[in-house]
Target: Maltose ABC transporter substrate-binding protein
Amino acid sequence: MKSKKIICKLMVGIMIVGVLTGCGKKVIPTEATKVQEDTKELKAEEGAKLLFWAKPGELEYGKAVAESFQKEYGVKVTVQESGLDAVNKMMLDGPSGNGADIFMAAHDTFSTAHDAGLLLELNNSVTEKIKEQVNETAVKSVEKAGKLYGVPVSVETYGLLYNKNLVKDEPAETMEQIVEEAKAYNNPGENKFWYLTAVSDGFAAYPFLSLDGFSVFGKNGTDNDNPGFKTPEFEKGLENISALKEIIPIKAEDLKMETASQLEQNFKEGKTAYYPSGPWLVKTLKEDNIDFGVTTLPTWGGKQMKSFASIQNAYVSAYTDYPKAAQLFASYLISEEAASLLYEKVYKITSRKDISNVSGLKDDEQLRVFAEAFKDAVPMPAVKRMSYYWTVIQGVINPVFEQKMTPTEGARKAQKDFDALVESE
Model:
């Protein structure tokens, strides 16, 4: 989807909220009307009943956690799948009273949801619980001006998968070692590549782009006007991308997320030794009885690679009739019981700092690596122009990787393309 269309869609959603609130429907609560009790124990309202919008494909998990919550708190929770765009759906349904009390959404939609007035500021006691139990990196994804507006529930980032039939000893800790081993192993005619990655994609490329300090949209990912393309750090990152061509002699067009299934198949067939990916691939590999391991991303030039991280957050609607009960349910999603159900039902990683009592996850040697890697990961920026990054980066990485464009030229093109997108707004 083109970036301009995305922005137009969001603007229309925001306009709809304004129209609906002006037609006698529910209005966005003001600071004076928001529930901000500071009591240590938050209690559900009498007769409270909640609607929870779970992520697509996670209805079973949603129902299981709702049942567990009801047993403990006596509050009935109805669960529905939200569809792919819960935030825009809430823009339409929230003001009319038909939206969810709690809904799940990816962290990069936080700014849009917050600025549209969809999110309830969380009670101080809930905020304290979240900060105490949840990984600090995840907490930042729901924070605005020191206040929290959501509960980070699950996390994803990259780890380095390795094929134990090829990597006989301990997995490599440096790209230097991988490069040397690739030179001896690679055989393009037989589709044998020691190391593969979807380098054309902005997510998969980020560990290489960020290696020398490049940060997308500023250090904290909040500078919507400055993508960081006009920096020496970004240019050095493109140099790393260009250097990968030596060990991945494949066309850039064949190294993108759309062709990831082919790269994964090469790994499954034992023709690729190392493949960076996320926890979403682990379950499939186990089901296919692939003998593999997971380790953290390697260093290169003595510097640690860092991956983008994605966080799924639970938000309490500003329009809910039961703000106390809704906050109780949202915070329950990070309990050990709910974290265990998250692993059991959808094989995902909780945002909790401590997973020692999370059934299943605590004994899963592969997924535990991703939980550890998340501590050093970088949450994808939630600025409104983040969509521009994906568009710009692919148009630059491909020619740089193919060595048809120098890193310096690539950096200039990236900034020029970004400026053109801003100009088209």
About this structure: The chain has two domains: 3-156+310-379, 158-308+382-423. Residues 3-156+310-379 form a domain with the D-Maltodextrin-Binding Protein; domain 2 fold (CATH 3.40.190.10). The longest helix spans residues 3-21. The longest strand covers residues 308-316.
